[in-house]
TrEMBL record:
It holds the Pfam family Acetyltransf_8. One of its GO terms (molecular function) is N-acyltransferase activity. SUPFAM superfamilies: Acyl-CoA N-acyltransferases (Nat). Residues 38-85 form the Acyltransferase MbtK/IucB-like conserved domain. One of its GO terms (biological process) is siderophore biosynthetic process. This is Putative siderophore biosynthesis protein. It comes from Protomyces lactucae-debilis. PANTHER family: LYSINE N-ACYLTRANSFERASE C17G9.06C-RELATED. InterPro entries: Acyl_CoA_acyltransferase, Acyltransferase_MbtK/IucB-like. It comes from the Eukaryota. Belongs to the lysine N-acyltransferase MbtK family.
Amino acid sequence: VVTNGRRHPQRPPKAYPGELIYARVIDINGSQCTLELKVASIKNDLKHFSEWHNSDRVNAFWGERGTAEQHKAYLKKQLVDPHVIPVIGHIDGTPFGYFEIYWAKEDNIAPFADSHDYDRGFHALVGDTPYRGPHVVSHWIASLTHYCFLADPRTMRVMLEPRADNDKFINYLNVSGYCREKDFNFPHKRAALMTISREHFFESHP
């Protein structure tokens, strides 16, 4: 299959909006909580999705401030794109963040990362302030990475491309086992290529 001039495998059908694709029990400050990843649903998620993007903190990195209608159109586009799964993260039923899990081969990162057929990556946005910080970040980084490796046994590498000056998030990724392969220039930002291999993930997350 060829998308935007890039040859890649045919991707499997995506889960439906609102469908649970991953769940695990995590420990936050001594309390047992359930972290869930569900495919974004316009009906259920547009309100908080729009509120998150209109916060100064999120807009500084995503640049998607706008109206609810604009955010609805954005979500619709992601929901029909075969190379992306837009996901809402929940902790004990409360939505806390938005993530885009993508196949790297047909993503904009491909020419910078020497992407293989089944490499994956994700973009991350934590909307609710109480769920920011190291006590939660390590859990959702591990959970999203775990999902990527579980979803297809042929996925050997997961990657992210945060802004090169986003030192806090890059440090969180380092602590979670990711390595900084290089920095490179996207048209809209200077980015750091952060990657983790299947072997290293399962060795460091028993």
